[in-house]
């Protein structure tokens, strides 16, 4: 391999992490329970943005670890709990949700993240809406 190729490869690997734009972003979650009278709109933060990935066309020249497909995921998060209004006494009226404190580019952890490419868009209310700003 030529020295120019090796230097270009190293520069790309180092610059790739610096060029990532992964950060907490404002997001609204709509939560409702069948038994409750209202839908709750919760303002929170999630991790969103661009993470540099590497093209697998060079897989014969690179180590497998250099071919990772990174996603914008949680570095630090905490959970908050909101009260869904209009619930009958026999129903648990609480909903816990994640709040992104900081984010990173890394492998997707299915323990707390949705790692699929396409998701079902069901983030809307079918009942009268209440807003929760925490």
Automatic annotation (TrEMBL):
Question: What sequence ranges are listed for the domain Glycoprotein hormone subunit beta?
Answer: 21-125
GO CC terms on record?
cytoplasm; extracellular space
Key word Ribosomal protein present: no
Tell me, which GO biological process terms does this entry list?
Answer: G protein-coupled receptor signaling pathway
Q: Could you say which residues form the signal peptide?
A: 1-18
What Gene Ontology molecular-function terms does this entry list? hormone activity
What is the protein's major site of localization?
secreted
Q: CDD domains annotated for this entry?
A: GHB_like (cd00069)
Q: Where is the protein localized?
A: Secreted
Q: Which Pfam families match?
A: Cys_knot (PF00007)
Q: Which InterPro entries match?
A: Cystine-knot_cytokine, Glyco_hormone_CN, Gonadotropin_bsu, Gonadotropin_bsu_CS
User: Carries keyword Glycoprotein?
Assistant: yes
Keywords carried by this UniProt record: Disulfide bond, Glycoprotein, Hormone, Secreted, Signal
Q: PROSITE patterns annotated for this entry?
A: GLYCO_HORMONE_BETA_1 (PS00261), GLYCO_HORMONE_BETA_2 (PS00689)
| Quaternary context | Heterodimer of a common alpha chain and a unique beta chain which confers biological specificity to thyrotropin, lutropin, follitropin and gonadotropin.
Which family is this protein grouped under?
Answer: Belongs to the glycoprotein hormones subunit beta family.
Tell me what this protein is called. Answer: Thyrotropin subunit beta
Organism of origin is Pheucticus melanocephalus (Black-headed grosbeak)
Q: Which gene encodes it?
A: Tshb
């Amino acid at each position: 391999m030529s020295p120019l190729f090796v230097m270009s490869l190293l520069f790309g690997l180092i610059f790739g992490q610096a060029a990532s734009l992964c950060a907490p972003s404002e997001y609204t979650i709509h939560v409702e329970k069948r038994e409750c009278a209202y839908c709750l709109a919760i303002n929170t933060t999630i991790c969103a943005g661009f993470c540099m990935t590497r093209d697998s066309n060079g897989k014969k020249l690179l180590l497998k670890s250099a071919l990772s497909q990174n996603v914008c995921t949680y570095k630090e998060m905490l959970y908050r709990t909101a009260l869904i209004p209009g619930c009958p006494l026999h129903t648990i009226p609480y909903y816990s949700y994640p709040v992104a404190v900081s984010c990173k580019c890394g492998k997707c952890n299915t323990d707390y993240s949705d790692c699929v490419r396409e998701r079902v868009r069901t983030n809307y209310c079918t009942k009268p809406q209440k807003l929760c700003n925490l």
